[in-house]
Amino acid sequence: MPLDDRSTDRPVIPTTSQRTGGGSGTVGDIHAREPVITVRDCNVHYGDTHALKQVSLDIGRNEVVSLIGPSGCGKSTFIRCLNRMNDTIESARVTGDFRLDGQDIYAKDMDVVLLRARVGMVFQKPNPFPKSIFENVAYGPRIHGLAGSRRQLDDIVYESLERAGLLAEVKDRLDEPGTGLSGGQQQRLCIARAIAVSPDVILMDEPCSALDPIATARIEDLIDELREKYAIAIVTHSMQQAARVSQRTAYFHLGNLVEVGPTEKIFTNPGHKLTEDYVTGRFG
Ligand SMILES: Nc1ncnc2c1ncn2[C@@H]1O[C@H](COP(=O)(O)OP(=O)(O)OP(=O)(O)O)[C@@H](O)[C@H]1O
Ligand SMILES: [Mg+2]
């Protein structure tokens, strides 16, 4: 699909295809300063549905990238490619080049369980295991052999809960079920579970959409803190949230990555008409 650069009154931004030789026509710069994930020419089909078309994008260390766009444009599909969650969908066919620190994510010898620890995921609906708060966080480090002793395991659990901003609220009831926490607490528990295995990347698919404004603000603060250590991609329908938490924003439309750039630019001076229509609320 030809994605024109609209403006006569704005400088023409070289497209990704001009920069990378890819065929996507994305406006803006797909590159991160310190890439952890690099995706080139990603295509995903579900049966006859072409859900992602020639998408190329980096996600870098110490940055939050927001993925925005109308429902069905392929945001979740894109992040699911990054830790091979689409492997579990029978009709999904994924092509392209996907790297984690240079390593081929789709290599035959890739250990997918380990990959999903290195590229952790937080979902829209908090999904703690039906186990204690402690066990929710301890499970990953235990199966990946990250703790040599019970003492070390305790340390990992406490530190992860602390970094997820939850320890103070749960330290006296670690044996109680994770499912008994409030929605916002459950989501922070899921974040603690993701960071307990020392990931490189955290993917979040609308992590606040089931939360009230106070719980949302806590998660947003947390995302900002986590950026110091991880590469983060967050799917959100809230443009205010994208503006608050991310340094770069990627706008998807009908399976195309239309535009990517500094968040402020995307919201105040986008380079593509489709982006402008969406961020000014004219879309749809
Ligand atoms: N498991 C699946 N099987 C078949 N088609 C799917 C599947 N998951 C997604 N699709 C299709 O792929 C396209 C992209 O869907 P995706 O869920 O990635 O969009 P999205 O941008 O995350 O939307 P939303 O904002 O509603 O979550 C849509 O046309 C959708 O119907
Ligand atoms: Mg989605």
Structural description of this entry:
This protein is α/β, with parallel strands linked by helices and 284 residues long. The protein has a domain at 16-123 and 204-279: Rossmann fold, CATH 3.40.50. 34% of the residues lie in helices and 24% in strands. It is built from 11 helices and 11 strands. It has helices at residues 16-20, 75-82, 112-118, 133-143, 150-163, 167-170, 183-195, 213-226, 239-245, 263-268, 273-279, and strands at 27-28, 35-46, 49-60, 64-68, 92-100, 103-104, 119-122, 201-205, 231-235, 248-253, 256-262. Strand 8, helix 8 and strand 9 (231-235) form a beta-alpha-beta unit. Helix 4 packs across helix 5, helix 4 (133-143) packs parallel to helix 7 and helix 7 (183-195) packs parallel to helix 8 (213-226). It is globular, with a radius of gyration of 19 Å. The model is unreliable at 1-22 (pLDDT under 50). Adenosine-5'-triphosphate is lined by residues 46, 49, 51, 69, 71-77, 89, 91.
CATH superfamily of the domain at 16-123 and 204-279: P-loop containing nucleotide triphosphate hydrolases
First-last Cα distance:
19 Å
Series of secondary-structure elements, N-terminal to C-terminal: HEEEEHEEHEHHHHEHEHEEHH
Cofactors, ions and other ligands in the entry:
adenosine-5'-triphosphate, magnesium ion
